[in-house]
Automatic annotation (TrEMBL):
Bilayer-crossing regions: 6-35, 42-65, 71-93, 114-136, 176-197, 218-243, 280-303
Top-level taxon of the source organism: Bacteria
Keywords attached to this entry: Membrane, Transmembrane, Transmembrane helix
Annotated protein name in UniProt: DUF2232 domain-containing protein
Amino acid sequence: MIFTALITLAAGSASALMFASIISGAVISLLLFYLAPLPLMVAALGWSAAGAAAGGLIAGAGLGLLVGFPYFAAFMITVVLPACWLGHLALLGRPASPGPSPAGEPPAMEWYPVGRVVAWTAGLAVLTTMAALFTLGTDSDSINDALRRGMLRVIGTRDNATPGEAEQLVDALVKIAPAAAAIVAMMTLTLNLWLAGKVTALSGRLQRPWPDLNAATLPPMTLAVLSLAIGLSFLGGLVGMIAQTTTTALMMAYALNGLATLHTLTRAIKHRGFWLSSSYALVMVFGWPVLLLVVLGLADAIFNFRQRYLQRSKPPVPLS
């Protein structure tokens, strides 16, 4: 018990230090800032989500005393809440059958679906993004004005930027800033959870078997929520901003669905590793190919490409 408490407190302290490193302004601090949920996720998956939450709360309180309450609130909303809740969901399980298991054998468990964890990740990405934007203002106009002033200060310092060019560039960046922040939040939360799972699995502390990520599917309701968000995104004001952020996060969730589909449909292809690595490289270098993954993920959600492929590829059952 004491050892677990020390582990979770150390994880919370590490996350708080990584989060606070952004104050230094160093380039490496940006990487540490994005990886801040990782220690708490490792503690949640390997020891206890509740203990990780307590360790994060104590470390956050210390951070608040040192640098101010706004940092405490930001740390709790953007780091502790997502890390501990996703860790809790990943370990949710129940017996697969209500009957008693054979003597001496642990009961077969049914674990919380990975696709639902991805949907929660998208929701938390929207929450953390909007929480960060609400620190700039309480309505869309004040948020956009604050973003515009900040970007003008940065872009205006360039020697080769004329005032007209700077304003045009800033206006374009302000429009895409909430969506870009949602993409970053979605990807960093997903990466941190995957890394935490790998770390705890390699250490033997992961309290569930490693899931089949290629079989993960988003809940059917996700498509309805995405359709609603797309419709509301054409509205102006705060509602439109929230809808655009939600649309972007859910599209990234479907991009992950598309990656799982790509991994499944290429199982029988020669040089599969080369084609998959090339696809990852194209996405990372150019960015826009992620839209193809979104389309593939949406198509799989509607037409069940993976399920049909796996049914066709199953060997026939021999006649008795």
